[in-house]
Amino acid sequence: MNAFHHALPKASPLLRRAIAAGILLALVHGAAWAGDAPDDSSATPQDAKQLGTVTVTGSGSLDLYRSNEASTGALGQRSLLDTPFSVGAATADLIQNRQALDINEAFATDPGVTPLASGYAGEASGIAVRGLPVDTLNGFKMDGLSIPNWGSDLPLEPFSQIELLKGPGGFMYGFGAPGGILNFVSKQPTLQPYASFTLGYLSNGVLREAADLGGTLGGPGGWGFRLNLAHEDGNTFVQDGHIRRNAASLAVTKDLTSSLHWHFNSIYQDRDMRGTYYGIILGQDYGMSPPVRVPAPLPGDQRVSQPYTGYATSFRVANTGLKWDIAPDWSASVDYSNARQTRENRDSALILTDNQGGYTDLNYLGYSVYNYQQWQGMLNGKFETGALQHQVVIGASWQALDEHYPNGNFASQQILGTGNLFDAPIFANPGTPVSRATYLAETTTQRTVFASDTVNFSSQWSALLGLRYASFIDKEYGPGSSVPNARYQKTPLTPTAALIYKPVASTSLYASYVESLEQASSAPQTAKNAYQTFAPTRSKQYELGAKTEHDNWSGNLALFRVQRGLQYLNNDNVFVQDGQTRYQGIDASAQATLASNWTLLGGVMYLDATNVNAAVGVDGKRAYGAPRWQGNLYLEYAVPQLPGLVLSAGGRYVGNEAIEADNSNFIGAYHTFDLGARYATTLDGHAVVWRAGIDNLTNEKYWLTSWGFILNQGTPRTVRASVTFTL
Predict the structure, then answer these.
(1) DSSP letters of 41-94?
(2) What is the per-residue DSSP string for 185-223?
(3) Alpha-carbon distance 526 to 279, whole Å?
(4) Is 282 in contact with 288 (CB distance < 8 Å)?
(5) Which of 648, 583, 123 is nearest to 347 (CA)?
(6) Among the listed ranges 271-285, 520-534, 618-632, 644-658, which one has the minimum average pLDDT value?
(7) Is 352 helix (H, G, I), strand (E, B) or coil?
(8) Any idea what DSSP says for residue 2?
(9) Which of 502, 527, 639, 703 could form a disulfide with 667 if both were Cys (CB 3.0 to 4.6 A apart)?
(10) Beta-carbon neighbour count of residue 98 at 10 Å?
(11) Is there a contact between 213 and 162 (Cβ–Cβ < 8 Å)?
(12) Among 649, 639, 678, 599, which Cα is nearest to 61's?
């Protein structure tokens, strides 16, 4: 850990020098690039949209905030109207204009997304989709390929769009929990030279710097590149909290021939958080008695952990691939990804021992490593059989995940002291070193083949049939053992089927069915059976939906039902797999331009999530972490009297949520409101955008909850500001 602390201060000046070098490079070579680059008329829509992120001068925000297509794994890139599933997207423009910090804020306008934790107070941000948490080991993708994300936050700067497939992704992506799949789409090279630089501030003293550079070296057909650099450092809004983060990404493309294209995408991040904690846990959920109830919500900026507790994580991710345009309607691709995440724990579980706020600070020390590799090959094409048109996808994939846990499963846990949440003391720092010794705890290997056929019967009717066959092997090992303690092997078929009807070209009605095999969650570190794994479970989703897209508005409506295996921490502090949970409800959202100067995003979700076929005391109860009602709204107004000035306001309502499977405790409903403004102008012929905002305007105090037993403080009132300068 000492080496990590010493390395980061050295990295900060290096990063600043790299940004300065990027500015100098752009200034010196800008004219040369411009002479070699093709004109704007040849830029792709994606390139044009990326270049437009800093030149918005008023109305027209709707087209920057909505996406008309997305990648759907084994189905490839598809129009959302032709995708018979619910898919949301957070574009780079929305993320930047809202100055979003994490995945919670990136999807703050989506009513189907519920925040689970804060990345500045707790371990990391996290989301549930329609009440179901996103799988930390199988639910995150970068450019369609698997990456691990165990208790950390990916950088947002390198991505042009974050896509969210709601529900099981069995056929589309393979193994994974049914909450949804998050696909982070890398920013791609720009045809014209591009350079933007952002300086941001977040209360109470965090400075954020970022550079985004792109272009093509060597003229048409040359080497395209996109380089993103980011640095974040300072005291967070939590008292005695601190963040230090360095991130970089590089995307490179090259047309090897007119029909053969190569790409490379990578991200790097080191992130060190202090003054954070694992979670606040009721005593009985840790096997203690008598029962402790949920305390009154704490202010989001109140310190309850120690200034020296927290965690440090790193990401090293790279993927590369080739695409071959075989014929006008046929293409083939092969891709490889290698992803590694490390995590050094110094965070605490705060175990509540009474109803006056008394707690014991149980500190966990350890180092863990997660490695993911994936190969994938796909063939896409179109053909006709008589009056029927077929769009087919055939593919194969291999992926392997290995998880390395601390020797002895956090044998270095220690009690820092006892105190009270409402007036947390400072405990002496024991200075215990964190061992980096690990053992191979679990391996997961998947070999799959998949195929689908989208059959168009007419301009109005089409059907999708898809099937994925997998060979799945999960092995669990004990410390120092090369022989697995448990071995789970499955060879499932996961089908998907859908019917789409378009009454008019701009509207789709669909019915879809999806299955998915889910890797069971490991028991949490606070359970008696910490890190125990279980057999995989199968999830099913039925969905009826409607989508419509117009120049000035679009809308989505889905009625859904998901059946999933139930996993929870029981009253004996043992993590068990027992029964099922049924999630069903309505998810409706809309995006619109109103009266030319107004842009609106938002929607509402109703969710009935119930445990079924479960143990006595759990059966018939509400699913933990699933609100019945949620509503989200974001509104922008382009001031006509002052072109370039845009005012914004947002709000989110989340209903009450059960903490445990037996519903012994609930957290209350909460609502937050945000205000913001941005002003786009020019300075010496270069675009400049000033942004400012206040989130949680009323400083609402509220709890977030996750995994059936964890409490985290909600984000307090925060002030954020930034300026982006584009060359």
Answers:
(1) GG--HHHHHHHGGG---SS-THHHH--SEEE-GGG-EEEGGG--S-EEEEEHHH
(2) EEP---SS-EEEEEEEEETTTEEEEEEEEEEEETSTTSE
(3) 10
(4) no
(5) 123
(6) 520-534
(7) strand
(8) H
(9) 703
(10) 24
(11) no
(12) 599
Q: Which two tokens stand for residue 263?
A: 């790409």
Query: Which single residue is written with the structure tokens 């090992």?
Result: 477
* DSSP states of 454-517: EEESSSSEEEEEEEEEEEEEEEE--TT-SS-SEEEEE--EEEEEEEEEEEETTEEEEEEEEEEE
CATH numbers and ranges of domains, the chain: 2-726 (2.40.170.20)
Phi/psi for 645 (5° steps) reads: -95, 125
pLDDT tens sequence across 536-546: 778 899 999 99
Q: Which helix (H) or strand (E) element contains residue 232?
A: strand 223-235
| AA letter at 620 | G
* Stretch among 265-279, 560-574, 630-644 having the lowest mean pLDDT: 560-574
pLDDT higher than 90, residue 670: yes
HSE toward the beta carbon, residue 22, CA cutoff 13 A: 27
Tell me what pLDDT residue 60 has.
Answer: 62
- Buried b vs exposed e over 700-719: b needs ≥16 C-beta within 10 Å? bbbbbbbbbbbbbbbbbbbe
Mean of all residue pLDDT scores within the chain: 88
- Give the Cα separation of 635 and 667 in Å (integer): 28
User: pTM, whole model, 2 decimals?
Assistant: 0.90
The token duo for 360 is 């014991």
Q: With b meaning 16 or more CB within 10 Å and e meaning fewer, what string describes 388-404?
A: ebebebbbbbebbbbbb
Q: What is the pLDDT of residues 225-266, one digit of tens each?
A: 999 999 999 999 999 999 999 999 999 999 999 999 999 999
Tokens read off for 705: 């909850």
Instruction: Determine the 3-state secondary structure of 571 from DSSP.
Output: coil
| Type of residue numbered 540 | K
pLDDT value for 74 = 86
Contact 271, 310 (CB under 8 A): no
Is a pLDDT exceeding 70 seen at residue 195? yes
By DSSP bridging, strand 279-282 and strand 348-352 are parallel
Structure tokens at 11: 């990295």
Across the range 398-424, mean pLDDT stands at 87
Q: Which residue has the tokens 């949680």?
A: 696
pLDDT at 636: 97
Give CA–CA dist 33/247, Å, rounded: 26
Nearest to 542 by CA among 167, 49, 128, 246: 167
Between CA 61 and CA 636 the distance in angstroms is 8
Contact 207, 533 (CB under 8 A): no
What is the pLDDT at residue 480? 83
The whole-number pLDDT of residue 489 equals: 87
| Cα dihedral across residues 215, 378, 497, 114: positive or negative | negative
What are the distances in angstroms from CA 182 to CA 141, 178, 610?
6, 12, 25
- pLDDT, residue 576, reads 77
